[in-house]
């Protein structure tokens, strides 16, 4: 199978008539009047972001999911995506499953694949996806938009992806039941991107938790020049973690990456509206703390003592 057959067979599906998809030198995107475009690109490298033997259907899903997560964290509605794929060889079974997982989510997200590039890379698989979303001007959920007195909210639950990853890496002993319960969070995340888009104009700052709650929340604090306190006992811990040592749970919940949930801030007066939007989108939301004047991130335990968090998140170059 040559490059052109591969593209035609696996990556050409119908696209909206007002745009132009796969098959020409460029795709064509028709901007909607009065809307601002949000763009993001993310790369997944074999051995770095995923295990070589990961289920290709789940990989296709996750590769797009992490990009949709960025759109949601900006308050943008998905519009279209592009896929650059670098493969050591043409494995049709792998491509079949990968493209199925990819398109299943793309169709659910109403985010057609308009083009891409396909090359050979002897070193391993590299997947790069570009997404474009749209939103009303001045409604983006900027990291710099947190305000003194804001509530800090989190969608979904924490800890499962990290506990799955640690077991797969051999950092902690594998328990079959625990791994089975935690693995979907790592391998098939469902970021609340529709809910994120609905927060545009309602919430202030937002970020998706890709590198760990502590590290990602710190990005908001730095950009917004404010401090935050989060309550340890309010953090939504994935039920699968029950029974694990407390220090391990805390570490995974505070610093574990690959979560793809949203952390956002909003004025306390918006709480009923946020609860209503979350219910409408079937998303679990928890108020985990608040923004205040000062610097840094504080984690308050049950005794209400303030702990300066020592843990960071995941940093590629640390
Ligand atoms: P060019 O050489 O002009 O860059 P290519 O031969 O790379 O064009 O690609 C041919 C067409 O197929 C283009 O429309 C491109 O966007 C699309 N395409 C290539 N690879 C992919 C892919 N992995 N997924 C979706 N579309 C792709
Ligand atoms: Mg090309």
TrEMBL record:
GO molecular function: thiamine-phosphate kinase activity
Binding positions for Mg(2+) 2 per the UniProt entry: 42, 70
Binding site residues for Mg(2+) 1: 42, 117
Positions annotated to bind ATP: 116-117, 143, 210
Pfam families on file: AIRS, AIRS_C
Residues given in the record as Mg(2+) 3 binding sites: 25, 70, 208
Residues where substrate binds: 49, 258, 314
Keyword Metal-binding on entry: yes
Gene3D superfamilies per UniProt: PurM-like C-terminal domain, PurM-like, N-terminal domain
The protein's name: Thiamine-monophosphate kinase
Binding site for Mg(2+) 4: 25, 40, 70
Binding-site positions, Mg(2+) 5: 211
Catalytic activity: thiamine phosphate + ATP = thiamine diphosphate + ADP
Superkingdom in the source lineage: Bacteria
